Records
---
Amino acid sequence: MVLSLKIAIRFILKSKWQSLFIIFGIAVGVSVAIFISILIDSLQYTLIKGTIGNAPHLTITTDSNKITNYNDLKSKIDKVSGITKVYPAVDGNGLLITPNKNYPVLLKGVSFDKANDIYQLETRKIEGRLPLARSEVMIGKDLSVSTGAKVGDDISFTQANGSKSTLLVSGIYDLKIATVNNAWLFTNLATAWAIFGNEGTYTAVNIQVKDIFNADQTAVTINKQIGSNYKVDNWKAQNAQLLAGLQGQSTSSYMIQVFVLLSVLISIASILSISVTQKSKQIGILKAIGLKNGKSSNIFYFQGFILGFCGTVLGVAFGLGLFYAFVTFAKTPDGGNIVEPLIKWNIVLMTSVIALAVSSFAGIIPARKANKLSPIEVIRNG
Amino acid sequence: MADKKSIVIELRKISKTYSGTVETPVLFDIDLAIVKGSLNSIIGQSGSGKSTLLNLLGTLDKPSLGDVLVNGLIVHNMDDDRLAKLRNQTMGFVFQFHYLLPEFTVLENVLIPISIEKNGKVSEQDRQKAMELIELVGLSEKMNVMSDSISGGQQQRTAIARALMNEPDIILADEPTGNLDSDTSRSIYKLFCKINRDLGTTFIIVTHDDRIAAQTDRIIELKDGRIVSDKINKNVACPI
């Protein structure tokens, strides 16, 4: 082992340029794999955060649209692991009536001390203040533009049963999602109860979870805890198309990574095979003076491992550097990041381990060649 | 007839044919026993089968017919690894083209046989011995120089030191001075003779030079794959 390792290191050092080219080749392959992996993860993270980051991941409802025992439900939900936020809401559909046009809207009555964790309305408001007083409402930026409603204006909210309410616009928010900005009105619970009735009851319990991709499983677990009288919807079921798109993106990213690593494998194997031919004189003489077949093979396994290790370390550094350069220089017109960086270190580690395994595996062909090399061939042919 | 115990290598009814598109017979029905501690030369014209005979004696090649015995053991059924171990512990090789490892220094090249035996775990004692051998071949000043940056004669001296490292029973040398000038050649043979006389190492030297052969204890002459003459030289003195 020691001797084969020593010879492998000397072979690498003796052919400096060739070794550097191999290391650089591996580094380029690994860096592309790492960069694509991080970029896709960050893009997906950015997309998901934009789509569901400020929305409930799970929503508990009943057929009667009435939840009377919120505290009891909450204590059961808290027993499920992976829950980060829970808050009740009183939601109701209706129309925002203007002289020119009627706009379908969803009036959401929430307790701002709890709901603010999810919606972050305090930081997302672009004008005015939170609707904490009776009959106050906060509307989205897009709805404000469409209707012309400004902070301090009264708006008219009409339910399906024809009942009308007049609400005062206390603030305007921007949750960066057009469908929400166009349709959601936030108000306090007291106002919602005043409009929809059933004081002390809720229409939904909203939940955010730690692992959003496992939200469907968490929904099943919660449903088991709280019983079948309740319906637990999850964001995945409601965003099937988005999920299919993300999964397609992930699959194509894996495919790219597989082919990149495959090309690394083929490159190292072919260069190391040439190396056996280049070093056949040395291998032949070593065998003539007693080196066993297995140890002569080990020389090339070690070469593959050492070159792979150096290439992988360099490749990880390149890949991360490339990604940071991308994040630093690729900006939106208003100076924001195109993607929010999300580096999954376990993926980086896994890619590195695979690259290293692939590099070591690449030593098999040259190792077999070295194993079969007969010293007499070298000695007879000079 | 030599005493069985004093024979280090023996060939019994050896024939060798190289097979390819055309079968080429090289050696025919060779019987040969090499006595321990002797200085032997194999002579003959080009194509007479000298190198093939040496490669068979060194277990680097396998005979088509017959048996090779090293220290009384038939090597015919040994696998590659057993043969490698046998070579490592009983033989030293000196080739015409030196065959040093250019990736290593002179000292490291000399240490290779013991490194192979001990799997790289070379002791200080081994290093000391290697340095003594380098001194013996007159290369103390080049000890830490890369082996591809010394002259041909120095490379051949390094190969001799390497061949002696594991204290082999026998050293096989194939045209060891074929690429060297006459002064260097003389000094190399002088060294062979000195080692043979001082350390009792058996030498088998393939050469086409009759003058060199004349200074060995035994001259085996090959012609067309057969031994045509086998002479003992008595009271041979090492060249000055």
---
Amino acid sequence: MKDIYFPNLGVGLGLRTQHYSSVAQSSPFIKWFEVLSENYMGINGSGGGRPLKVLESVRKNYEVVLHGVSLSIGSTDELNFDYLNKLKKLSQDIQPRWISDHLCWTGVNSENLHDLLPLPATQETLEHLTTRIQRVQDFLGRRILLENVSSYITFKHSEMTEWEFLGEVSEGADCGLLLDVNNIYVNSVNHEFDPHTYLKSLPKNRIGQIHLAGHSRQGELLVDTHDGPVCDEVWDLLRLSAKLFGPVSTMVEWDAKIPDYRQLEAEALKAVQIIKEETELPREARAQFA
Amino acid sequence: MKPAPNLRDLQLWLRWIITDPRGVSRALGDSYPSIKDLKSRFTEPLLSQLQWIETKKVGDVERLDVYAEGYFSRILESLEQDFPRTKKILGKERFAKLIQDYLKSYPSQFTSIADVGSRLTEYIAEYEEVTENFPWLPDVVQFEWNWIETFYAKEPHQDLDLKIKISNGKPRDIRFQVHPSVKLLQTEWNLTKIFSEASPEKKIERPEQIQTGFIIYRWNDQVIWEELENSSYDILKKTMQGLTLNESLLNIKGVDPQFISDLFKRWVERGILCGLLEERNEDDL
């Protein structure tokens, strides 16, 4: 098992248009922002326009990481090198600490469904993903992180659990993992598994970032809507993650019904406190979770 | 039980189920879409794929519905933000129907959702369902898309010495570089009232049918639009084509020199003219 390293940047936030002016003023404990890569690539190959200009100015004062939604690493279409070229250019311009996307597919037959669609956990998918992740990493010249997605369907022909699959992909392709603990919770309810087993089974050395977010209920299912505060169960999973993996860069996602910047900072501060409490436990107390 | 589907077949099947405008239930119940002209896209689904979806606690249709609803609502929400006046004119339901029909003909092939509206101008021109009652709507859609393109346009290098260079040279022989965000738009209907009205409650009235020129550009990080009278429109159009002022004025008669001077001064101050083009080589002419 290789040791890989993603620096701990502390707790960050997602950069959203509504907060551009608040971000311009300094924040006491927010040291970094995650930005959606596609928002800064412009349209019709135009470049990023005003959003890119804002990002360049934010970058002067904060660390930035790029988070994409259109890599479609699990699609059976050819890799989209037009997209990858734009991503590489953005990365060269912004110099992010790392680049991440999702372990999913977003479209097929040249159509983009603009959603993070789940993959069956089979050997076929594993081999398909491993080859493609390696090609992307070679092209970008850096190791990427891939995020576990929330899902509303699973497949009967899956040959392993989601957590086993995540571990196999990251080891096989030598990439990092962006662990979304809200997605783990959402999936644990939708597909009836124990989220603690999930967390305890992951390869600790591959986890480079953690996501927190809110979700909503649609009938019997939980849906990953990013439109509210982090719930208690997800805070508990962050607590366990901190015990298991130590301090890892963590950020709060809030993409719909976006509150004012102060409320986001309050969520981030709560994450800071939990990570601090759990990672400052005596070594013996932490050992039982390792 | 049939053998498990390979990854490609599974993805093609899921795409079909999620994007079928009739909804998951009807798509699952009818292997041949009723929309004959779209058969090439909505190919015969392999209904047997359904047996590979876990249905513990919640049924397959309900689970697939989350994706189907998300697919349409995500794109609709993005286009509602990009085309607020089009939505206001049509109303929420009619706008949603327009987008549903648009997606049948132009499913997204873009990596960014911000691009999805790029062909709506082209689509709406032929969309008789709305153009019969709202013949000015294609102009509104075009205007709103130009606004988006201006917002995302490249930020060029701004020549800070431009004013000095102009005063040191022969202004009438200069070829200006126009800011990439600048859009010139000629509409069949005068949209000034529609786009001046800030109140979301006020009903949008039918505009006057008069050919009107507009400029949309970015200044101080804001997207600005202005109505342009004919001579300004023509001069700017020619400037954008790389012509000098002398060349631009060849076929425009009776324009007051002071008016021209003020016009260019304002365009420089507003960053619409942001630099000088390299001198053209005589061999290129």
